[in-house]
Design goal:
Layout (H helix, E strand, L loop, with lengths): L5 E5 L4 H6 L2 H9 L4 E6 L15 E4 L7 H11 L6 E4 L4 H8 L3
Parallel strand pairs: 1-2, 1-4, 2-3
Helix pairs in contact: 3-4
Length: 103
């Protein structure tokens, strides 16, 4: 792969689980020093990643609905970042579809 790696680390559930995910951006930066790391979280967990020197972008997604509108909403949020890799730390059908959504 050529070019800059752009990682999305998605943890869209509880506070404790989000805290457990905090080492991941650091380890990605250690392995890929020139990469960009973004996290996808809920609004009530975003502060966990604030001021983290290993996180370049914090994306907040609070849509708890299901279905095609939810998938489109999430896909439109993440698409502009052109991520090369994604880590879905909680199995979530909407998130899985949005990772691969093309429109």
């Amino acid at each position: 792969m050529t070019g800059k790696r752009k990682f999305l680390v998605a943890r869209i559930d509880r506070i404790g689980d989000t805290v457990l995910a905090t080492p991941i951006p650091r380890e990605l930066k250690k392995s890929y020093p020139d990469c960009e790391v973004s996290v996808l979280v809920r609004s009530y967990t975003k502060d966990i990643f604030l001021n983290n020197p290993h996180v370049d972008n914090i994306l907040v997604w609070d849509d708890f609905s299901r279905g095609i509108q939810s998938i489109r909403s999430l896909a439109s949020l993440i698409k502009p970042y052109r991520f090369t890799d994604g880590f879905m730390l909680l199995p979530n059908e909407t998130l899985a579809y949005a990772f691969f959504w093309r429109e």
